[in-house]
Design brief:
By secondary structure, the chain is mainly beta. The chain has eight helices and 65 strands.
Length: about 950
């Protein structure tokens, strides 16, 4: 920039001057005086004055006054022409050959060297050649000129050297003129004729399209149809006579004035569709091609074919059996075009002239999703995704309560052998039925009960026939009566209970190998009742009674019986004792003592005589008599104990065993909190259970409980289905019986019917109906950006738990969930009404306070956009909701829990009416850690007893 300024100043000096006017000035300018009144002159000297291109020379500027004396002042130099010249202080370097004028100036005294000095620059030998093209770029078919600059080793340009031009294929070369008809970049190369091997630097010829002969109007994005609020930008491409295209040709775009609006800068040619319809635009090129035009027609059609289902309605509850067919009927039509195709669950049905169609589908048990797609002639797709529930039966919730909606065997309580008899009987820790029975028997006063039977337990009579008393004889009976008297003792009592088919086999043992089972203190009354006769005379009655104390001992007494508790489905409960038997081991009776009877008789002709007769005198063998009493004693004691204990055992079955079962019968409420953030009060769900079946097998007792879960219908729920879905064995036969492996001491099987009833109760209550602030609920946990995002939910049908699949958990199916959605999603304004179908995996989790239903992962989700607000983009809303609503629901639902469903412990304390236990006795069966698994038709909760 510094040297350019100097050149400019010198150029003016040669003409009008630099600064003040130079008119009338010369090299000796007497008017150009300093205060001393002297004039000055500047002289330019070059040494050397002749150099080669690339070399340098030194310039000297001398300033003298009119007396010829040197004058010290600042000087500058300028070179004309400047092309290829570099000035560094007083050194001038020339890059190209030629003749140059060098001029010195003294700005402070306002003089310059009018003549200057001549610098001659000679070229060196040619060392390279470089091509240059002008004009460049050039239109197709027009010529451009190639200049071949031959340079020496120092880069100086050598003039007058003959050169030739070559070019890439597609370029026409005429001497140093080049042209091409196809737009593009082409390489052009120069060569020195006499030195073809010199290095050559090519140039690039850029050929652009020529004057257009046609134009094509384009729309971006290019779509078969556009949605309302969707924008489109227009551009055009021109084509010249050679087929080259260009995008920068000026032109004018004209189009519709209604139904669309300009977006942003009008010169950007962007429009937004406001109404559906057919719209035409035209582009006309400016001069020199004003007759070149093109037009385009675009369709605003954001509504695919309208599909209407006439059967089944959304959220319907259909009744049917496995293998039956449901015929889906409906109509399809389009407002701007024709219907090209329709598919119902993957099958294309026939459509008549009026748009009616029907399709047969074979439903499965549970929620059935119908997917209908229809395409119109503009390529716009319509979508309808209704659903219905299908089963052989439903439980109505209309005008009923928890008892009224009970499901037989909705819960099955499983009493393993450990709960019946764990083999460890601690009377201070009553944790099984066998220990309870032992405590009951230990507290029974059997001797008192025996004595209450009247005392006599054995009585035998032996006749006396004409026993001789000298002149007299006796005829009559000896009556022996055995009675129980205090004290009488029962030894230690143990009970063993073993579950078996139909009930519980019991073995009750009194006594051990070291302790007697029974010690009876007896009184044996021996009575003589006879008549005395002599010589045909009746001498009167002869009687006497002797009481002999005695003892009977039994080492063990064993009772065996089957305790029966049975309740078939729909039948009455049977509580009974069957096949009660009793046996004794080592029952002994002390040897009877001989007894004497003394009496007096008045014998005619003889007079009064006194007689003493012993029992043995009547022919009794005391050992035999003692032995003879043992059998009736055993028989009598056995029958007596049987009579005494059978009612006791029946009471135990009725009170304890049936009472234990009935502990599972309960009624309670649990409040479901408003975790959805709808602002509603917690929903109260009433739960009721009752005994519905009882079945004992070898491994334990399987107790079926009818379960009902009910909530009042909420005002926000306007739907009227048949009721809660009942399973029907996945539509194969009756509901499966729970198959249990009895690996734990206690278990509970929750039938999915009962779980579906709980879900239906929640849905019936309106718990999930209403507005939800999704942004507030998700907070920072949302996987995608959302703001002010709300959903107003109206589920047309209750959720269904479906365990017919082979999935690790069970599936929760939800069809026809209507949602009015608004807010910002991924920076886009959302205002739409949708229907959502989804299927997600559900796990059951056991915690200390009960069983929870936990939402796992979404397996299937389908979103049908029903309507979009007028102020948002139809296309963007549809696309975003169909793609992103699933992840939002996943973030919202996954990990949520419903519960707890309480798993109660068992208490033996109140099973026997009037039964009291010693202080500190533990009668509660404490549950260990819960385990949860899945069986067909059931969720199984298992535990062992602490």
């Amino acid at each position: 920039m510094r040297y350019l300024a100097l050149v400019t100043c010198v150029a003016f000096a040669f003409g009008a001057g630099c600064g003040d006017s130079n008119e009338g000035k010369t090299g000796e300018t007497p008017n150009a005086l300093f205060p001393n009144g002297k004039a000055y002159k500047v002289t330019t000297t070059i040494e050397p004055a002749s150099i080669r291109a690339g070399e340098s020379t030194t310039v000297t500027c001398a300033v003298v006054d009119t007396n010829g004396d040197p004058h010290e002042t600042a000087t500058t130099i300028a070179v004309t022409p400047m092309d290829g010249i570099v000035i560094d202080d007083r050194t001038v370097t020339a890059a190209a050959s030629g003749t140059f004028t060098v001029v010195c100036s003294a700005p402070d005294v306002d003089v310059f060297d009018e003549d200057g000095a001549t610098l001659t620059v000679e070229a060196g030998a040619p060392a390279s050649v470089e091509a240059a093209i002008a004009p460049n770029p050039v239109r197709a078919g027009e010529d451009a000129v190639v200049t071949c600059n031959v340079k020496d080793a120092d880069g100086g340009i050598i003039s007058g050297v003959p050169t030739t031009v070559t070019a890439a294929s597609g370029v026409t070369v005429d001497d140093h003129d080049v042209s091409a008809t196809i737009a593009g970049d082409y390489e052009v190369t120069c060569a020195v004729i006499d030195a073809a091997d010199l290095p050559s630097t090519p140039a690039t010829l850029t050929v652009i399209a020529g004057d257009p002969v046609s134009v094509e109007l384009l729309a971006d994005p290019e779509k078969p149809a556009y949605a309302r609020q969707e924008s489109v930008q227009f551009s055009w491409v021109t084509t010249d006579a050679y087929g080259n295209t260009a995008t920068d040709a000026p032109g004018t775009l004209s189009g519709p004035t209604a139904g669309v609006e300009v977006v942003g800068d009008p010169t950007e040619n962007r429009y937004r569709f406001l109404e559906q319809g057919l719209y035409d635009w035209t582009v006309t090129l400016d001069a020199p091609s004003p007759t070149v035009t093109d037009d385009i027609s675009l369709v605003c059609d954001d509504q695919g074919p309208v599909i209407t289902i006439t059967y089944p309605p959304r959220g319907a509850t259909l009744v049917g059996a496995d293998g039956e067919v449901v015929t889906v009927t409906g109509t399809v039509s389009d407002n701007l075009g024709t219907v090209d195709a329709i598919v119902v669950n993957g099958v294309a049905p026939a459509v008549d002239a009026d748009g009616n169609f029907q399709a047969d589908i074979t439903p499965k048990w549970g929620t059935n999703f119908i997917e209908i797609y229809a395409d119109d002639s503009h390529g716009v797709q319509g979508k309808l995704t209704p659903s219905f529930q299908y089963s052989s039966a439903y439980v109505s919730f209309v005008e009923t309560n928890a008892q009224g909606v009970m499901v037989d065997d909705g819960v099955q309580a499983l009493l393993g052998q450990g709960a019946i008899d764990d083999g460890v009987h601690d009377p201070t820790d009553v944790d099984d039925l066998a220990t309870l029975l032992e405590v009951v028997l230990t507290n029974i006063d059997i001797p008192t009960l025996l004595e209450s039977q009247g005392g006599a337990i054995v009585q035998t009579t032996t006749p006396i026939v004409d026993y001789s008393l000298g002149p007299a004889s006796l005829t009559g009976d000896v009556i022996i009566t055995v009675s129980v008297v205090a004290p009488t003792d029962i030894g230690p009592t143990s009970a063993s209970l073993d579950s078996t088919t139909g009930g519980i086999d019991s073995v009750i043992t009194m006594g051990t190998q070291t302790e007697q089972g029974l010690l009876l203190n007896l009184e044996i009354d021996i009575e003589l009742a006879a008549q005395a006769t002599a010589a045909g005379f009746n001498l009167g009655s002869v009687s006497g009674v002797a009481t002999v104390p005695n003892q009977a001992q039994a080492q063990t007494i064993t009772l065996q019986a089957k305790l029966v508790l049975d309740k078939p489905k729909g039948g009455a409960t049977t509580a009974a004792v069957e096949n009660l038997g009793i046996s004794f081991s080592n029952l002994n009776l002390d040897l009877l003592q001989d007894v004497q009877f003394t009496f007096t008789l008045d014998i005619p002709f003889v007079g009064v005589q006194q007689f003493t007769v012993s029992l043995s005198d009547f022919g009794f063998n005391l050992q035999d008599l003692t032995d003879a009493l043992i059998d009736p004693l055993i028989s009598t004691l056995g029958g007596l104990l049987t009579d005494l204990l059978e009612p006791l055992l029946e009471d135990f079955v009725s009170d304890a065993l049936q009472g234990l079962v009935e502990q599972f019968e309960m009624e309670f409420d649990f409040a479901l909190p408003d975790f959805l953030g709808t602002g509603k009060d917690p929903v109260d769900v009433n739960v009721y259970t009752a005994l519905s079946s009882a079945l004992f097998v070898d491994q334990g007792g399987q107790i079926g409980l009818a379960l009902g879960a009910y909530a009042d219908k909420g005002a926000g729920n306007a739907h009227e289905p048949d009721g809660a879905i009942k399973r029907s064995g996945c539509l194969v036969g009756d509901t499966e019986q729970l198959a249990y492996d009895w690996s734990h001491e206690l278990g509970f099987g929750l039938q999915t019917d009962s779980l579906n009833m709980v879900f239906f109760a929640l849905w019936w209550s309106g718990f999930v109906h209403g507005p939800i602030d999704v942004s507030a609920l998700l907070g920072d946990s949302s996987p995608i950006p959302i703001d002010n995002f709300t959903m107003v939910l109206d589920p047309f049908a209750a959720p269904v738990i479906n365990d017919c699949s082979k999935a690790a958990g069970v599936q929760l199916e939800l069809g026809d969930l209507k949602a009015d959605i608004s807010g910002d999603l991924l920076g886009l304004g959302i205002d739409a009404t949708v229907f959502i179908d989804l299927q997600l995996l559900v796990n059951f989790v056991a915690e200390a306070d009960g069983l929870y239903v936990e939402m796992d992962s979404i397996q299937f989700v389908d979103v049908e956009v029903v309507a979009v607000g007028a102020d948002v983009s139809e296309a963007d809303n549809r696309e975003l909701l169909e793609e992103q609503l699933g992840p939002i629901l996943g973030a919202f639902l996954e990990g949520e829990r419903f519960g707890p469903i309480e798993i109660p412990g068992l208490d033996f304390g109140d099973l026997i009416p009037g039964m009291t236990f010693p202080a500190g006795t533990d009668t509660t069966l404490d549950l260990g850690p819960l385990e949860v698994s899945k069986d067909t038709g059931y969720v199984l909760v298992e535990t062992d007893l602490d």
